[in-house]
Amino acid sequence: MSLSNSKVTSHHRCLYCFSLPLSPWQDDFFEVHGLKRAHEGYARLGERVPAHCVDCGAERRISISDLTAGIAPCLRCAEDTDPDAIHVVYLMFFRELSAYKIGATSTEARNDRIASHAARGGTLLDQHEVPNREAALTVEAHVLGMVRHHPSVCTERDFPQGGYTETWSDDGPKINLAEVIARLTQGEAPGFDRLRKLRTYFSEAPATIEELVEFRLIETIKVDGLEVHHVGLSESEEQVLRKIRSRRTAQGQEDNRSRVEDSWAG
Question: Which of 169, 190, 211 is the last residue before a domain boundary?
Fold first, then answer.
């Protein structure tokens, strides 16, 4: 392709040759985002090229425009978090695709995931925290069951950021996410039944003051001109009890290891 004519002296009459110096810059741009680009030469800003995560090795196709818009570079790393930590369930609408989407993610990756969908035209309608990943996936599966007779026409091509299988047509029933979570919580659905199990455990071995003090939260409020100190927990009851029980388990394993080592030494 000629970019000039005989009357114009230019050393760059070919688009390919003209763009060659930009290729190293694109490689560097991908590396800044933790990706290794598997594409030779220059690519248009909106062209999705193969790349892999330098941390976990996961492969995907993504463009510079996607990365600039806030799409998570690696979906596997974005979701790699403690399954027992608090997670988020969100509901989005894609007007151009005439489709709704339910999603579940960790609180750490929430902004990345929602930004990824927003960059592709999604509008966040609602989001709620749930106690763990199992609970989040329970909510997601329950909602998809409610709309299974209203499939969308979305494909993987419409969702390069992932998640097209969790969509449904906008002619389906309206979803009240808060009501769904409230029903599942009351029914102690999978993931929502852990607090009861933890309370059963601690009813036989109550948490000590020493174990609880780390999670102490003191808030000062004014009531009728008087300062009132309210003592509570810095995290949810389930998270506090879970961490205390995990530490007890770890300590028990350490004590057993020490006893075994002492017996060998004797």
Answer: 190
Does residue 40 sit in the same domain as residue 92?
A: no
Instruction: Tell me whether residue 3 is in a domain.
Output: no
Question: pLDDT of 107-128, one tens digit each?
Answer: 765 557 788 888 889 999 999 9
**DSSP for residue 126:** E
In terms of domains, do 175 and 206 share one? no
Q: What is the pLDDT of residues 176-235, one digit of tens each?
A: 999 999 999 999 999 999 999 999 999 999 999 999 999 998 888 888 888 888 888 888
CB count in 10 Å sphere of residue 143: 23
Can you tell me the distance from the alpha carbon of 13 to that of 187, in angstroms, rounded to the nearest whole number? 70
- 10 token code pair: 């230019």
Q: Is 56 helix (H, G, I), strand (E, B) or coil?
A: coil
Structure token pair of residue 154: 């979305």
Asked if residue 94 belongs to a domain, the reply is yes
At CA 86, angle to CA 80 and CA 92, rounded to 5? 80
Domain region containing 68: 15-76
pTM of the prediction? 0.65
Domain-embedded: residue 60:
yes
